[in-house]
Amino acid sequence: MIRNPITIEALETLDAIDRRGSYAKASEELKKATSAVSYAIQKLEEQLGITLFQRQGRRSVLTPAGQLILQEGRKILMATSQLANSAKEVATGWEPKIRIAMESTLNQPVLYDVLSDFLAEHENVEVDLIECVLNGGWEALEQDRVELLVGAPGPVPLQKGFRAIPLTDTDLIPVIATSHQLAELALDT
């Protein structure tokens, strides 16, 4: 059986060259010598019997065949990345990435301390944190932009399948400027 010359490493090299715009910049990203990156492409071209890049001045531009390999190769790279993440999830019991929305009125230093402790125990989990105002968190949860919402104002939207657990009671203190026209009402209480 003839071995396929298109390897994951070759696809990563092709992808890096295209994204970074040069062999030298791709070699920095891949942490390889420029000559190693150049050799990998030459070897792939030789084994496939096609040209992947053509010179246009000082730049190397993908040929139509190179564009096809890159386009389809990126699908393979994405699939292998998803496979690795799924394997991590199965092995650790945790998703590799969790998206969290926090309400802007939440005591943020406390949340950051909790997240810091969590990340210290679960080094392979990536956390994306966004700040929401008013009911934006519920909307983000409903639209599947986040998996967890912390500090959202009540009430919990009905018929959405959300499970809510109260954290603590929070006392909100209304504040008004002394120069405001209704400030006299606040002084009377």
Please describe the structure with a list of short key phrases separated by commas or semicolons:
alpha/beta; 2 domains; 189 residues; Arc Repressor Mutant, subunit A; D-Maltodextrin-Binding Protein, domain 2
Reported CATH architecture of the largest domain: 3-Layer(aba) Sandwich
Question: How many discrete domains?
Answer: 2
Strand content: 5-15%
Please give the share of residues in helix: 40-55%
CATH topology of the largest domain: D-Maltodextrin-Binding Protein, domain 2
How would you state the average pLDDT, rounded? Answer: 85
Low-confidence stretches: none
In N-to-C order, the SSE pattern is HHHEEHEHEHEH
The major beta sheet can be summarized as: 3 strands, parallel
Number of helical elements: 7
Number of strands: 5
Molecular shape: elongated
Strand order, main sheet: write it out. 4-3-5
First-last Cα distance: 88 Å
- State Rg: 26 Å
- Classification by helices and strands: alpha/beta
Oligomer: single chain
Name of the level-1 CATH class of the largest domain = Alpha Beta
